[in-house]
Amino acid sequence: MNRGRYIAYRVAWAGVASLVVTVVLFVVATSIGDLTDTLGGAESPPFPDAEAEFWDESDPLYVQYLDWLASLVTLDWGESLRYGEPVTDLVVERGKITAAYLVPSVVLGTALATLFGYVAAAREGGLLDGSVRTSTYLVLAVPNFLVAATLGRYLEKRSFSPGDEGYALNEVILSGSNVFWIGVAVAILSTHVAAVQLRQVRAQSSEYLAAEFTRMLHAKGLGPLGVARHVLRAAIVPLTSLFVAEVAGLLLVSVFVIEAVLRIPGLGFITWNALNFNDAPLVLNVTFLVALTLIFASLLEDIIAVTLDPRLDDG
Length: 315
Known about the structure:
By secondary structure, the chain is mainly α. It contains eleven helices and no strands. The protein is flat and about 75 Å long.
């Protein structure tokens, strides 16, 4: 299978997988009943339309499913019972807050993992290598919610008045206090992203540093930066797979943890509140959005792999 056919196949697979996710979510939602009773959460707040069904239960199941599928495609995701606002507006508004710390965390964490992972591999067995590996184990051993709680409360007392409520939703993302809390989230999350990736970066770099082509590069007089560029380029395919397999899972869990502990009202925060208030429109659509993100992240991983590694073009 050549490169073009493989990419077409993976795009088709992503489409089918997305459709399967909608079926699974619909079956779960129609089978589980009232989320409030199931999870033991609070009763839904008295919004005027709080008693309205997410779909018309008097219709046949397949009609209910098709109605929901149509709403997904048209982005008409209904109104949140918890917040009394259109779900699409909430997702966009709170998604920006989540992205404000999530994107910098991924970029910074990946950069740190690449730098220290390669340096540790190049100094394998030395003091720097041991220090980097020990630091990685320590970061992974300490739960990030504990770090968030400890660091957040300490900085809150040191930097703000005792009555400060943390992230201010009525202010812009880049306001002073909001930037502070986003910075705390970035500092916590980026170190965990780096720790997850660093071990693999070190392992892959160590393997390629001992390869025949690396010795040839040294023999040709190529400097350390040139060698590092060739080694990391060779290791990018397995490292890309690592990102989707481990980092994506870490980020999904961390979004809920970081936002709950630091009181950052992002996408994870409102989804957790929606679960406790039986807000089916918000919960179902955000869950679908998360699943869709993972599916297309996997698709992007394969496209990057087949694009960067010519050996995959014919097989």
